[in-house]
């Protein structure tokens, strides 16, 4: 809203008004300096995330839209897992869901490497790390794969990059955690693209086969990274694909879990979680 032009103050109040104006000017200058400093340092600064107190558990969920709960008006699996873990252990459990729709392994690695970022801080403070990443690494080849025109060679570069990134992501998590005991649970995927009735409608038969083959290959890379790092690989491919109707576990887009799918993932994660949680460094299960 536009302001009216300032009117001169009455003569008898001029000294007081002048003092106020000078004070306001000094305050304004100070605020400008503070704003400048904040602009310079703000990108690198985030409120400190405190580690769990003795007897408490802090969970961080790192990953893509599956982790964030996209296209499901429901609680995503990280929160459900936290509730299940609390019920099993009878200790306070805090969950930080850092899932980002569209995130690939390179993007997650960059977030972990960003000094004082929220992802870095929450990973540093968590004694349980949930990791779901990799499907979006192949997004540029979606049409080629799902039409059946892509052989394994067309994603070889992306697969190689994913394999390298998974190792770097795990190394970064350990570097942030130091010598603190940390449980890392890495999930695979039921499909890196769409599945169920939606896939049957949109993909060719050869495309569905190619998508499944790429999923198995991706899961193998995730499982190998987990084994090499003493983390725990959590298979969600088999429970989804062997279910009576996988469509019942998926949102309407066929690409993300629905409430039942998220609940299933949470239960699988809990079953893979050591009980009690480890007390020595680099122990995943």
TrEMBL record:
The keyword Transferase does not apply. Residues 61-264 form the SGNH hydrolase-type esterase domain. Pfam families: Lipase_GDSL_2 (PF13472). One of its GO terms (molecular function) is phosphatidylcholine lysophospholipase activity. Transmembrane segments: none annotated. InterPro entries: Ester_Hydrolysis_Enzymes (IPR051532), SGNH_hydro (IPR013830), SGNH_hydro_sf (IPR036514). Keywords: Hydrolase. It comes from the Bacteria. CDD domains: SGNH_hydrolase. PANTHER family: SGNH HYDROLASE-TYPE ESTERASE DOMAIN-CONTAINING PROTEIN, THIOESTERASE 1/PROTEASE 1/LYSOPHOSPHOLIPASE L1. This is SGNH/GDSL hydrolase family protein. It comes from Kribbella soli.
């Amino acid at each position: 809203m536009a302001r009216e032009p300032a009117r001169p103050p009455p003569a008898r109040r001029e000294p007081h008004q002048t003092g106020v104006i000078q004070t306001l000017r000094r305050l304004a200058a100070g605020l400008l300096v503070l704003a400048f400093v904040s602009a310079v340092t703000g990108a690198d600064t985030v409120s400190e995330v405190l580690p769990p107190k003795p007897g408490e558990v802090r969970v961080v969920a790192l990953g893509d839209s599956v982790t964030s709960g996209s296209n499901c008006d429901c609680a995503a699996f990280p929160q459900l897992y936290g509730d299940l873990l609390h019920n099993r252990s009878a200790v306070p459990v805090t969950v930080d869901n850092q899932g980002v729709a569209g995130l690939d392994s390179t993007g997650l690695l960059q977030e972990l490497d960003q000094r004082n970022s929220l992802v870095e801080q929450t990973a540093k403070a968590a004694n349980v790390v949930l990791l779901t990443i990799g499907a979006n690494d192949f997004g540029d080849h979606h049409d080629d794969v799902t039409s059946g025109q892509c052989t394994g060679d067309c994603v070889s570069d992306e697969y190689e990059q994913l394999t390298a990134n998974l190792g770097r992501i795990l190394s970064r998590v350990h570097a942030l955690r130091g010598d603190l005991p940390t449980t890392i649970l890495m999930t695979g995927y039921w499909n890196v693209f769409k599945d169920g009735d939606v896939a049957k409608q949109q993909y060719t038969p050869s495309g569905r086969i190619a998508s499944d083959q790429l999923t198995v290959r991706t899961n193998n890379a995730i499982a190998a990274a987990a084994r090499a790092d003493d983390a725990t690989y959590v298979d969600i491919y088999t429970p989804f694909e062997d279910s009576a109707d996988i469509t019942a576990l998926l949102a309407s887009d066929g690409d993300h879990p629905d409430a039942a799918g998220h609940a299933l993932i949470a239960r699988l994660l809990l079953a893979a979680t050591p009980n009690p949680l480890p007390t020595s460094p680099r122990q995943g299960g």
